[in-house]
Amino acid sequence: MIISERIFKIMEEKGMTQLEFSAGTGIAQSTISDWKRKKTNPSADKIMTICDVLDVSPFDVLQDTIPGKGAGDVDFVIASKGTGEYDVVKKLEKLNKKTKEEVVDYVKKVKNKK
């Protein structure tokens, strides 16, 4: 199931119309209709707004869209903005592959010291 299909399913479960959804999210009705008609997804920057309007978590929106077996293990870590964990993840994202591997190795070594 693609993300937009999951959004429409949640809207249906909540009895929310596309007009209500559009008004709540600020996303044009034509854009929402395109998701359905063209089987496309909303842009990533809209997910949190969509979740707020639908009163669901990002996991609720994405849960049926995660690739199944054969696509590798998929796992999520949620870190709240402003926390140390969030800062580390954001900094880690900016590192090159070799440096990321070095950081992971370092963390493993530190963990094994306990």
TrEMBL record:
InterPro entries the record matches: Cro/C1-type_HTH, Lambda_DNA-bd_dom_sf
Source superkingdom: Bacteria
Entries under SUPFAM superfamilies matching the protein: lambda repressor-like DNA-binding domains
GO molecular function: DNA binding
Domain HTH cro/C1-type positions: 9-62
Name this polypeptide is given: Helix-turn-helix
Species name: Pseudobutyrivibrio xylanivorans DSM 14809
